[in-house]
Amino acid sequence: MKLPVAELHVHLEGTLEPEMIMALAKKNSIELPYASIEELRAQYQFTNLQSFLDLFYANMAVLRTAQDFREITVAYLQRAHDSGVRHVELFFDPQAHIGGALDLREVIAGIRAGLADGLERWELSSKLIACFWRHAPASEAMELMKVLVEQKHDIDGIGLDSSEVGFPPELFTEVFDYARAHGLHVVAHAGEEGPAEYIWQALDLLKVQRVDHGIRSLDDPQLVQRLVDEQMPLTVCPLSNIRLRAVDTMAEHPLPQMLAKGLKVSVHSDDPAYFGGYMDANFDALMEQFSFSSEQLATLAKNSFESSFLDEQSKQALV
Ligand code: HPA
Ligand code: ZN
């Protein structure tokens, strides 16, 4: 199902389709432990977030040049456009790409060039959000944060992703203070596998403007009340939740409940090449299970634009 929406929770590296991984590995002379696309696809069985992340980080090593980043960005934007997306706020993981021959400036320049192509070809507007790995030390994130700001790297905001349980948001308070002080937007993954307490920390300590996932908020009625009162955006990723077993089946997915409680939820694809599809596939799966009314769909679409970092005028033009 194709609904005009804003995509606010998608990881660029999670749009790397198996065919692209194999082609990039060949072009960049990187040996992969899979002989064929089928063998690679056979790995896409996940038991939790970590089992996915292990494969995800290994595969993204095929990205080696600015042109690689430009091409995968354009390929994703084409697919997003085809599935109804009108505006994208794209995540990437800088820590995965630096340390080798490529420097951060080239990575960002490649992605930005791809985003500019998307604007020109499909009038698809975009923002770029650098996510820090919560499994890595906060001191590393802080060093990188300073480089991003001091060298005036071209990003719109920062986020926090990777392994959640055992890595509470509070570890990154200083990094987020620094980012906010420098005018960057701030978001964080919280309450995907981790407890509601991590969502409280994302709000109170990181002072985020959106919570990525946030499904575990339902465990804590006081937190739900706070999120409703503040109309805090939650970027929910249904197919991701099922494939990573954060939720057992679509029938048990909390999205209808979240909507009914008045939470500001919207639907997103997270890592579409790994989890069974892009924005359209997420809506197809939801509609098959829940047959949302046109009013519910309109709320989800409106929430996506309102939760974006577009200025008011641009939001109004898209809503
Ligand atoms: N959670 C945490 N980190 C991630 C995810 C996710 O769903 N996708 C890509 N990095
Ligand atoms: Zn994510």
UniProtKB/TrEMBL annotation:
Query: So where does substrate get bound?
Result: D271
SUPFAM superfamilies for the chain: Metallo-dependent hydrolases (SSF51556)
Active site, per annotation: E192
* Residue ranges constituting the Adenosine deaminase domain according to the UniProt record: 4-319
Q: Where does Zn(2+) bind?
A: H9, H11, H189, D270
Keyword list (alphabetical) reads: Hydrolase, Metal-binding, Nucleotide metabolism, Zinc
Database matches in InterPro entries: A_deaminase_dom, ADE, Ado/ade_deaminase, Metal_Hydrolase
Q: What does this protein do?
A: Catalyzes the hydrolytic deamination of adenine to hypoxanthine. Plays an important role in the purine salvage pathway and in nitrogen catabolism.
Q: Which family does it belong to?
A: Belongs to the metallo-dependent hydrolases superfamily. Adenosine and AMP deaminases family. Adenine deaminase type 2 subfamily.
Instruction: Quote the PANTHER family the UniProt record gives.
Output: ADENINE DEAMINASE
The name of this protein is: Adenine deaminase
Where does this protein come from, organism-wise?
Glutamicibacter arilaitensis (strain DSM 16368 / CIP 108037 / IAM 15318 / JCM 13566 / NCIMB 14258 / Re117) (Arthrobacter arilaitensis)
Q: What is the lineage of its organism?
A: Bacteria, Bacillati, Actinomycetota, Actinomycetes, Micrococcales
Instruction: Provide the gene name from the record.
Output: add
